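From the methods appendix. Each design record in this collection lists the tokenized structure first, followed by the designed amino acid sequence. Records were kept in a plain field format so they could be parsed without special tools. The example shown here is representative of the layout used throughout.

RECORD:
FOLD TOKENS (82 positions):
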């Protein structure tokens, strides 16, 4: 009885695909290194900006809470006083 499954053919193709993937990984390596270098540099440069943004947001948070309490107390009638 002949099997419909071609195990040897599949194994051969598996190893061909693995070899093709290895070639592509080698092609990708320098681009990946450059990408990682740029990302790390950008991350380092953004760190102080993120800290400043966080600092200002932390100062605004209590104001938002206070405004919500006042708006509720004013029953949403928050128009400018005369």
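DESIGN:
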């Amino acid at each position: 009885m002949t099997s419909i499954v071609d195990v040897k053919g599949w194994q051969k193709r598996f190893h061909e695909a693995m070899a093709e993937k290895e070639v592509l990984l080698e092609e990708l390596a320098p681009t990946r290194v450059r990408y990682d270098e740029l990302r790390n540099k950008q991350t380092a440069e953004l760190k102080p900006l993120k800290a400043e943004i966080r600092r200002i947001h932390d100062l605004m948070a209590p104001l938002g809470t206070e405004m919500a309490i006042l708006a509720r107390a004013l029953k949403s009638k928050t128009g400018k006083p005369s």
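APPENDIX NOTE: Helices lie at 7-73.
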